[in-house]
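Let's do one together. I've listed all components of the complex below, 816 residues spread over two lines.
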Amino acid sequence: MAFKMIKNQRFLSCSEARLQDIQELRFLGCQKSKGFFSIIKEDKKTKARIGIIETKKGPIETPFFMPVATKMSVKFLTSEDLKTMPVSAVISNTFVLHLNPGEKLIKKMGGIGKFMNYNGINATDSGGFQMYSDKIYEKSNDKGVFFKNPSSNERIFITPEKDMEIQLDINSDIAMCLDEMPSVKGDRKKITEAVRKTVLWAERCKIHHDKLQKKLPKEKRQLLWGIIQGGLFTDLREKCAKKMVKMDFDGYSIGGLALGEPKNEEYRIVKFTRKFIPKNKPVYLMGVGSPDEIVEAVSQGVDMFDSRFPTQNARHGTIFTSEGKLRIKQLRYFEDKKPLDKNCNCFVCKNYSRSFIRYQLKNQETVGMRLCTYHNIFYLQNLMRQCKEEIRKGTFNSFKKKIMKLYS
Amino acid sequence: MAFKMIKNQRFLSCSEARLQDIQELRFLGCQKSKGFFSIIKEDKKTKARIGIIETKKGPIETPFFMPVATKMSVKFLTSEDLKTMPVSAVISNTFVLHLNPGEKLIKKMGGIGKFMNYNGINATDSGGFQMYSDKIYEKSNDKGVFFKNPSSNERIFITPEKDMEIQLDINSDIAMCLDEMPSVKGDRKKITEAVRKTVLWAERCKIHHDKLQKKLPKEKRQLLWGIIQGGLFTDLREKCAKKMVKMDFDGYSIGGLALGEPKNEEYRIVKFTRKFIPKNKPVYLMGVGSPDEIVEAVSQGVDMFDSRFPTQNARHGTIFTSEGKLRIKQLRYFEDKKPLDKNCNCFVCKNYSRSFIRYQLKNQETVGMRLCTYHNIFYLQNLMRQCKEEIRKGTFNSFKKKIMKLYS
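Okay, and this is what the predicted structure of the assembly comes out as:
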């Protein structure tokens, strides 16, 4: 019964889908608490849970995956496409948008959601991720980060306060503190220093954000997440997590992972770090978008994900299916009449053969990229629905094992 | 009343739209003749007319514009997008498809329409246009054309007979004879020679196509157009047209124009050549996709068009609107909240501002290209509907003048 209701959601708008989720939960006898985050179902065998985050744009059910819309669009998918799946949240990049078109324009156009015609939840990353790019990052000190504009070579100094102001002008629903993200393979000294600055900046972000928020009516309040860094060092993770939690953020992000380290290292750090985050706060694992990594993290009590992995992979021909990964450019699919995934209900799988999609993609045709991107994002949205369904049924652990096996 | 019915078509499938057109014509008291092409309304002040071409895939109302789907897809638009406008016909390229994926695969997959999940009319150009490309074209003689495969450097010899066989395997609804298309700025000697070969090959195409068609049941009959070349020389155009008409093709194409010559030269040649084509045959002006050139040609009795102009222009930011061309990348649109075209009903104009589209396109974001492409093709489909409506109302000539003025 519940599964049927979930199936019917597929072609609702984002807000309809979010509301239906909540009505359904009420129907199942759950109560929403008065806080902005409520846990409504917990798995018995794992730490997986279903929750609801109340944002200024409306409620969103966790766990969820956010496609990356760095410049206010997901490559090859318009906001209308996102609604058909539906995708209930996307994440954009504060620093990239500050450079161009600038937060003042976005504010003038009614904020990011209105500007990009998206009625789902908009999250923004602070720009910490851009420190990974030599083209953009220059250096940082205790006061903030020096970036350079790659098109003009102009030097830009971003303080934690400035970062908060930009994200408020962009008008995202969930914002991130400015953090320093060192290479995961960085030495202990570098990562210790990154944790120190991340904590320092987070304090300033929190104070300034609180100050700015006080001027706003309650229904316009933007949520703010603190980011936990520390590389693969458990003591640094513990230290950073404890300091962040003390500041009492709306939610917590685990950053600096999924950057090339072995998967079991990632799992070890997620499991370890998660312990220090209070149960009643949402947890966001940044940069993770592979089905196996998602279900593992969900089992550790992670609630939010984002990654360019599914869209980037789609464009290069790596397809997520109910039978594992499929590399559509391989010659074996040359005359394959089957859909990408016989168990998928997306419009791509209903209407196109592997053979056609392979031909389009091998020829760098944009339609091939669009079809693969749509399918991969649809697959992940469906995976998140399945996670919730399995948590509700009490069968999440065996579902997780199945996905881990398919994708390992 | 009739206009309302046409407006309602917008979100029908291609075949529904085509059928509704015909039902509407019956409703208006018109009768379909038994031939495969029937003229159902003629303008009094110009040579414009409305007709119906019966193809093996169903009827299609003329005049119509075909977006270019060289490799079985229109850049950035899936077949689903084409259905929402609706686009009733697209044109693909025989020689390009022969090279890759090969006509045998397309045949195996059920033909081009099924393969690309398109229920509109599929036309194919023979490959003559590829002679314009130094990368592909090598030379030709009386027996056929030597092409080279740009990826393998393999030499490929295409005879008129081979070209017919490929197009039948592709299973398009409307095929073109193999023609030689010289540069429009070529000297008289070169163009005379091109006309000679085009006529010679057309004869062989016709004989071989008739032979192959005899084996097929009547409902599977592919239509074949003869192509008239002759550059800007009226005597060569006359000679070519007369020889083609003698062979009695299903329709006639005017080729070798819209290649950089002044527009009034194009208009002069269309007007002149049109005279030699029987009134009861459909006429296709190849490569024309600019609103002013389309309405001028419609007024000369041209029934079909194709061009990469509207899609290519869209990607570069030149937008068709009810007020003429708009160059969306200009700085003046930086904070413009208006839609691309306030009089347009497409989903792009209903949901996105010029400011957002400009930002996406300036940043080479694929969503910007998709939005502009959708709008430009929608605009042209709407222009064709307007042409028909104005012909019906007897006001086509003043409509034509209005469009010519807007786009000159």
